[in-house]
Amino acid sequence: MRDLEAYAQHGRNNPHHPDQLREHPYDFVSLPAAPKTVKAPGHDSYPSQLYSGILTLVYRTLTPLHVGSGSFESSQACGLGGKDQPVRGLVRRAGRPILPGSSWKGAVRARYEAITRSRLALAKDYHKLFPEKVPEPLRVDAKRTHEVKVQDPRLRRLRARQKERSEEAREFLQSLSPAESLFGAMGYRGRVHPGDGFIKAPPTGAPLEVAPMESPAAHRLAKPGQAGKGRGVSIEIREVEGRKFYYDGDVVTARTATSRGEAHPFTHELVDFVPAGSLVAVEVHLEAVDLAELGALLISAGYGPGAGILRFGGFKPAGLGKVELCETRTQLRQGAATRSWKRPAPVELDLEPALKAAHQTLIDADALLELHTVTTLRRP
Which of 209, 218, 319, 212 is nearest to 259 (CA)? Predict the structure, then answer.
């Protein structure tokens, strides 16, 4: 998380000032110095102590949810009332909105990586920054796009693992981080397979107006005092803050945008949405997971009072996509299960031992506390 004293010492804006909380509604969970490694099971057998089966998670949306289809649609075609106008469409199946399994997996994996000292599935070390976004102390040329190079050595150590051709399979399986072991890596198929989440939602009225909040500019990823001018038109970041997560807060329906020194009030976008109070049911197929992995997965999926706030879909900076996990069902078996007539009966699984095992062997308590603190901090 941000060090507020360091921000003051280096003359950077207080990130907890109300204006900053509104414009930059995020903080960071610290990165580990090096990844934790575990031994991943192969896919050739189902050890008797590991669990396979279905984990059913039912979420209730606390704010509107928008999982974009990537295209604009007519508001009337979306079943929205009011004036017919283009809106950002939702992902649908057979006319019904869904939460794609990939959306669930991406959000949950990001949290799992953060709390288990795992390698990062996505870790860019090169960005571009338009000159108007560059603060004066770092600006080289007011008319040229700047290159932002991240030179934090931790990112090199946390880069996603890829199996090399000459590498033995056994050696590779013993070098994966917890998230790679569970969700997969290049050269290793994951053991968590979510289906699309079916949504039970009341009808909506007019399109939702939502503020187009931006992702943080690249230079804001740097810790205070850790960004400087590089060669040519470039900025070098020596140490990043960590992994970004968003604060809690009400939906931001409009904001004031500024371009060329002029303010343009009431800037917003129109989107199709799933309203608050809807139910989203996701079936997650698990393959040969142990108790600790199950417990860490549940926490990452929003289970328990210390898990922080989970969000799905787009426009997270503006407050969309907030959910709570309201029901958890397990149908898990231990051991081999490749033939339906040989499968053992499902076991009644108490989730508390899984949570305890996760805290003992996988979860970094400091990182989990940071995640909870960031995602539950209220912005104006």
Answer: 212
